[in-house]
Amino acid sequence: MERALLVNKAGTFAGDLCFLVFFLVIGVYALSYEASAATWPLVLCVLGAGMCIYSLIVKGSPPKDVLSRSADLRIRRFILWLIILGVSMYVVPPFAVILVWLLAMLKLESRLNWRSAIGVTVGMGVLVYVVFIYFFGASMLLGG
Amino acid sequence: MNFVAVFWHLFAHGANIVALAAGAGLGMVFGVLPGLGSAQVLALLLPITYGLDSNTAVILMLSAAVGTVFAGSVTSILIGVPGTPINIATIIDGYPLAKQGKAGIAIGAAGASSAIGGIIGIIILIAILPLSKVLIMSMSYPELFMMIALGIACITSISEGSRTRNLISGILGLTLATFGFEPMGSALRFTFGIPYLWDGIKIIPTVIGLFGITEGLNLIIHDAPISSPPKGSSLSQILRGACEPFKHWGTTLRSAIVGTGIGIIPGIGASLSQFVAYTMTVQVSKDKSRFGQGDIRGVISAETTNNATQGGALIPLLLFGIPGDLITALLLGALMLHDIPAGLNIVTRPDLLLSIISTEVIANIFVVCIGFVLAGYLIKLTAIRSDIIGIVVICLSVLGAFVYQQDVRDVILAIILGIVGFFMIRLDFSRISLAIGLILGSMAEMNFKQTLLTGGIGAFFTRPISLVLFVLMIFVLVYGFRAHKKDFHGESSLGE
Predict the structure, then answer these.
(1) Which of B178, B403, B495 sits opposite A40 (nearest CB)?
(2) Environment class of residue B338 by beta-carbon count within 10 Å: exposed (0-12), middle (13-18) or buried (19+)?
(3) Does ipTM exceed 0.85?
(4) What's the pTM?
C-alpha cells in the first residue's frame, strides 16, 4: 500500500483540532508558572495555536478515512498487541516478553509456519542475548 | 613530524589496525540497531580505552563513531528507520529509492558520500583550524537561537505536505521539550504529577517510537516486500551509487562545507546540519520534483553533511576543549583518561592531532569498504515480506527503548509515540519536524532566555549574524509557504 493511501490528503481537521486543544491546555498550564518558566512555553503555545487556527480556517476539511477496512482493523489489532507488549514488560522479564510476543505475532499475524516462526524467534533471541545482554550489559532484560 | 610519517607510524602497529576494525565493526552493529548509536558504543568503549595506548584509544573511539553513522544510514534506506537521529534526513530520499528497487544505489551513494564528507570535513578542519577561533567567538546566544530557528524552518520547508502542519509539528516538538525541569531554573513544568516526566520527554525513546515503531506499523499493513526486485546485481548498484557523489560534486562539496561549518558551532551538531544542507540542495536545484520521491542528491546531501559535521565538531574540541556534540564529549573523556589536555594545549601533542585527523580519514574509507561488502546481504532484507520485517523492527525498537536506560516507562513512551507517529502520517503531519523540534528544544529555550537576560529581545535584531540568520529564516518560511501554495491543489513534492 502506497504512502498516498495512508495519508489523508483531503482532511486533517481532527489533527489540527487535537493539536489546537493541546496547545491551549499547555498554554493555560503555563500561565500558572513563574514568568521565567512560563515565557518560552507561552511563546510556543501562542505560535502553535495560531498555526492550528490558520490551518483549520484556511485548509480545514473533515477527515476522510482512506485505509481499507481490513488494513484498519489490522492496525487496531496491532495497536492493541503493542499495548499488551508494553504492559506485560512491567510484570514479566522483557527478554521473555519480547520473544513470546515475536513468536505470537509471526504465527498469528504473519501466518508463518511453526518452523520459520521458531527459527526467526531463536535467531532474534541469540542476537538480543549476545548484543544487548552479553555485550551491552543490559541484564535488566532478564528481569530483576 | 610530517603527516605521512605519523600516518605510517600509526597504521604499522597491529594493535591500531585491530582497534580500527573492532571499532568500525562494533559501531556498525550498534548503528544498525534502533536505540543504540554513537553515544552507547562510545560509552561502552570508554572504560576499555583506559588500558590502551592513547593513539589506539583515539582510533578505537573514532572508528566506532564513523561506523555507527554509516550503518545508521543503511537502516534509514532499507527500512525507513534511522539507526541514529543524525540519519533522519537520509530517509527522505533513501527509503523511496529502496522501494523502487534501488537500495544498492542509495547505499553506494550514502557510503561514498559519508567517506567524502568525512574527508572534506577533515581537510576543512586542517585549513581553518587557525581561523576557527574567530567564528566560534562570534557566535553568542542570539546567533545560536537563530541558528536553531533557521534549522526548524528549513525542516518544515522540506517535509511533505502542508508547510503549516509541518510548522505545527516543529512547534509541538519544541513544546514537548519544555516538559520536565526548566533549563537554567528549578521549576518543574507540565509533569501532570507523573515523576517520569521530571526528566522531560526523552529523545531516544521518542525517535525510536516515531520512526521505529511507526515504520513497523506501516510495514505491517503492507502485505508485500518493501521493494520491487533490485534492478541489476547489488554490487553493481552499489558501485554505481558510489560514483553518484562525484557526478553531483557541487551538492557533495556544498553539503560538506555546510556540515563542517555547523559542526564548528558547539552544541548544534548533525541533527540540524543534515536538514540545513538538504534544504539548500533542494533550493538550489533546478529540478525539485524528484526530491522526497527518491532523488539521489538528497541522500548525498544528508550523508555528506552528517560526516562532515563530525570533522567540524573536532575543531572546538581540539582548540578549546569544548565538545561540540555527544560524540566529541565522549572523545574528550577518552583524552582525559589518558591525561591529554584538550584545548589549545593539544598543539603540544602533534602526534595525537595527526592521529585524530588520519583516523577520521582511514576510518571513513575502511567503514565504507566493509559496509559495501555487507550491504549486498542487507539489501536482501527488502525482499522479505514487509509485515515480518515490521514485527522484527517493532521488537528491536522496543528492546532499544528499554536498553537505553533499562526502564520500562521508556518503552511505554516509545509505544505511545509510535502510535501518535502512525496517525501523524495519516493526518499529514511531519514526524521529522516533531523529532528535530524535540531534540533542539531545550537548547533553543536556553539560548532564548540567555538572550533576553543579557541583551533583551533587541539583541536578536541588532547583532549582524543574528539578523542575517533571522532574515534567512523568514526567507525559508515565506519561500516554503509560497511553494506550498503553488502545489496545494496537486501532489506535494517532498516526502518524509
Answers:
(1) B178
(2) middle
(3) yes
(4) 0.76
